[in-house]
Amino acid sequence: xxxxxxxxxxxxxxxxxxxxxxxxxxxxxxxxxxxxxxxxxxxxxxxxxxxxxxxxxxxxxxxxxxxxxxxxxxxxxxxxxxxxxxxxxxxxxxxxxxxxxxxxxxx
Length: 107
Ligand code: FES
Prior knowledge:
By secondary structure, this protein is of the alpha+beta class. The chain has one domain (about 5-100): Roll (Ubiquitin-like (UB roll)). It has 2 helices and 5 strands. The chain has helices at about 25-30, 65-70, and strands at about 5, 15, 50-55, 85, 100. The protein has a 5-stranded mixed β-sheet. β1 and β2 form a beta hairpin. The protein is globular. Bound molecules: FE2/S2 (inorganic) cluster. FE2/S2 (inorganic) cluster binds near residues 40 and 45.
């Protein structure tokens, strides 16, 4: 199971083993990581699972689809070049050790 680290805006860091195929949003909400809300349940319709992916590893992720790119226009916090929606990132072995930072607000 890939090991993913979530860093909240407070600086609190949580490292979790996420089952392959789960989204990084599911992994966070199932384990009480506060900085991700996931209001729409992962259907790419709420933008409350916004995260900043470690820039050094951004290119390793599948590119965002059109729906994700459109929804990123609706994030509550600053959108950055490394902004992604955690519900659209599936945990795979290739993401082992990935670190994502969570914005100050999701709503
Ligand atoms: S959980 Fe709603 S867009 Fe990701």
